[in-house]
Sequence to fold (595 residues):
Amino acid sequence: MDLISNMLTTLRLDASVFLHETFCQEWVVDIGDFDVATFHVVSHGNCWLHLPNHKPVPLQERDLVVLPHNATHLVTHSPEPPEPDTPRNTPADTVCGPSVSLICGTVTFSQNYWNPLIEALPVYVILPTLDSRHTTLGKVIEALINECEENGAGSEVIIDRLADILFIEVLRNYVKKERSSTFFFAITDPKISSALKAFHSNPGENWNVQMLADTACMSRSAFAERFQKFAELSPMHYVTRWRMHFAHCKLTETTDAIGDIAESCGYSSEESFFKAFRKEFGISPSAVRRREAANEIVNMVSVNNNGSVALKILYTPQEANRLRLDNEVIFIDVRDKSDYMQAHIPGAVNVPELFYSLSMTTPEGLTEMQEKLLPLLKNAGVDRNKTVIVYEDNLGSRFGGSCRGYFQLMFFGHPSAGVLDGGLEQWKVEGFALDEGPVYPAPSEFDVSIQRDYLATVDDVIMSLEHPEIKLLDNRDKEEWLGISSAPSEFYEDVFLPRKGRIPGARWIEWHQFMENRDGVNHFKPPEQVAAICAQADLYPDDDIIIYCFKGSRSSNTFIALKLAGFKHVRNYYGSWNEWSRVASLPVFAARLVG
Fold:
């Protein structure tokens, strides 16, 4: 199998057409943020492509334009920027005057965590085919146009398969013409491509730079230098990244044992494979397998404005009340019983232990947490068939107690747990009903499915001390960070824990910096502000981050803030300082800072 075919097979190419329409007079096609590659075929007429910081690009009849990175763009009738009131995505009911017919589609890859083929393409690629109808690309475009116009039996399937071929033809044509120092030069260079083909044909071989160089009939140093120049990363970095994505494909699409997958990727031990996989993806291979098998990720995700995937966590009072009226929600109130008895959301069950309980993250500690909290959740009527929304007085008023409750539910595998945005105070502001006195729901049989993806244990934190690429974030109050107090003074004595200080190497951002007060009610700051705050501490969305506080409440609060901001690899050290400080053998940075 040739190199591009091998890569496309592993990446699982899937192209499709979503629009075939005719536009007249003044018009704009704006497909928004798809977060995937897009393409347009001009089947009739002429039009213009507009991209930020680029001159308008003319598109002629039968032109094909591909935007591999889905740069923000418009397709319009004019070289002039469209007016705000120009009709958008409004096809003509009847053709009147100059018209343009467009076929628009997307190109996705089911295994798309790292795609060197897409990365090597420019912002846009235009291939004119009006005078090249006898080429393979020209014939494919003609066939695509005919199928879209005829719309016969089976056309949808044929159109999507033609779209697949269309994108492969784009790659083939671009590779033939491209002569700059990019990955495409590497895969057409006789020496480098021979090494790449050998590796892709057998990624489980015990590859090293010398073996790759021998395959290319080059010296080790010359090969490494040439590979770095064209592929823009070292040979072994390339080998590792591709192996990890090959492994991810195996984990999600086969039932092969993880040990067998590790061996097929060239790893002699599961331990070394696990470390490499977690470094690449931020979670373990077994977590990927569990997630895929249970298919729970479908129920747990939503899409942010920036296109990134984030957990569905926050529920507005309006959303929560609609669920209440439809009897599709269970409310858990984590406030003290005295506050709960005075006023609470109708039907809410009081479980303050979700805030007050202390837990360790050793295997014994996690078992103890389950034995302590699970009966409380079952007595609260929690089951997997209803959304569970946790709330406190005012989001963050109990150091993120509602966020901690949410994190506990997520750990136990509840597929649709969340937090009430703004807490009970926002519920009151919106004027929704309140009740008082106790609620006694019918006990449930909550089917637990422990999820370790987002929980960091004490062993994970110990390992991070030897891996600087894993970044620790301490989000406690200033007095705790400086070693003045061992615990939050509002709830615990200054000497509640045996040691003061912080975990060596940790960064510090106080948890409430991610919050803002709007009309007396606390809310999370917008994602872009959260990301900017993190950037000041050298924390970025692709980083592997472990958050800790005193007992997992404030860290749960910050966990949510970062997930809503699109941070991909965030874990909550649930045992936090309460656990770390009690183990005398664990290192502590105890010096106080000034200011």
